[in-house]
Amino acid sequence: MKSQQILAKLIKFNTVKDQENKIIMKYLADLLKPVGFKIQMVKDKKTKNLNLLAKFNQKKPVLTFSGHTDTVPATKDWNYDPFKLTQKGNKLYGLGTSDMKGGIATFLQAVLKQDLKNLKKGLNLVFTFGEEEAIEGIQSFLKKIKLKTKYIILAEDTGLGPVVASKGAYAIKIEFEGKAAHGAEINKGVNAILIAQDFIDKLEKYFKKQKNKLNSLFEAPFATVNVAKVLGGDLINRIPSYCCLEFEYRTVNYNQGVLIYQDILAILKKMNCKFKIKLINQIEPMLIKNKKLINSMEKLTNKKVVGINGATEGTYYKKYGYDCVILGPGNGLAHQPNEYISKDQLKKAEFLYDNFIKEFCY
User: Fold this and answer.
1) DSSP string covering 87-114, please?
2) What phi, psi does 143 have (nearest 5°)?
């Protein structure tokens, strides 16, 4: 079975919001069990969804391939059946081809073509649910399972360039309290929207100063902020007594997120306003510093390691002490209509993963 054939099977499963989670996990288990992998289904108590761990030769395990099986919903803009692999020239269209069933198909084929009995060191394959909305599957998995592994390759779409860093992400919600009054009597009220505006101005100035704290691995090598939601006011002739602000900031170094949060609190306290603040989400950056692994990745791919601005499951692998490289096929089309992967990318990915196995497992 070739990578394209495996991908065609994977695309048929509707794993939007993990609808066919159990079915796709059974398919993967049925593919791997006959060649000697020990299968462990790991159920999440809250969602009842499954993660899957496939293990081969656990005496000297060294390498793990990992991928999430869920996808985002297909939009109405698709010109092809999102659940059928459609070939047009060099392009293979289908929901999840790039994010990330293409990566899963290629590392599966690279593994299945090995003479597994002659491996001197072992292999793990990890398949997770629930990555697209809250990265919850990998968190549930790692709380229960201690992997016997040295290196992890997460097959997200990187255009086959090795990624060893991803930014941290903090999401914040602040509710400002003002005082309502008639819109004609501004001296009697306190405008909560204007308080929020003043805070946003101070926040933007603060993050401009963060540009001198650099990490050259990232395209935007400094911490950034995005003010995403503002909600306040009701009537045009009433001074708003409430304004809710939501924003997130991305960090480039460890501990930076906590320090920025403390500085935000200090800014709010200096404003002498009434507010409630809530940390909605907290994801620390992934920063891999294993020189041996980095050198191997650069040699095998003939590309320099880089960092990405988004968060991935790699953050949680690093949290639990595993060195993870993000490297997979794709064309940067994740979450877009008419998502596709090229046949060339599939072939190159399979070739690279085959070389990784030869480098680390034989």
Assistant:
1) EETTEEE-TTIIIIIHHHHHHHHHHHTS
2) -70, -25
Ordered strands of the 168-177 beta sheet: 224-232, 242-251, 168-177, 274-283
Token representation of residue 39: 């299968």
pLDDT, tens digit (0-9, with 9 covering 90-100), for 303-362: 999 999 888 999 999 999 999 999 999 988 888 999 999 999 999 999 999 999 999 998
Domain coordinates of the chain in residue numbers?
3-166+285-361, 172-282
CA distance 324 to 156: 12
Residue 333 CA to residue 336 CA, distance in Å, equals: 6
Burial of residue 172, with CB atoms counted within 10 A of its CB: 0-12 exposed, 13-18 middle, 19 or more buried: buried
Cα separation, 221 vs 307, in Å, equals 9
Closest CA to 108 of 29, 42, 164, 161: 29
Tokens of 104: 């899963």
Task: Tell me: pLDDT of 60 over 80.
Answer: no
pTM above 0.85, yes or no: yes
pLDDT of residue 134: 84
Angle among Cα 43, 44, 45 to the nearest 5 degrees reads 110
**Tens-place pLDDT, residues 198-241:** 999 999 999 999 999 999 999 999 999 999 999 999 999 999 99
Contact 141, 152 (CB under 8 A): no
**What homologous superfamily does CATH list for 3-166+285-361?**
Zn peptidases (3.40.630.10)
Distance CA 240, CA 60 (A): 64
Which class is 172-282 in CATH? alpha beta
Token pair of 232 as six digits = 């306040």
**DSSP structure string for 201-222:** HHHHHHHHHGGGS--TTSSS-S
SS3 343: helix
**Cα 49 to Cα 129: distance, rounded to the nearest angstrom:** 7
CA atoms within 13 A on the CB side of 12: 9
Residue 295 CB partners (closer than 8 Å, separation 6+): none
Q: Give the single-character DSSP code of 187.
A: G
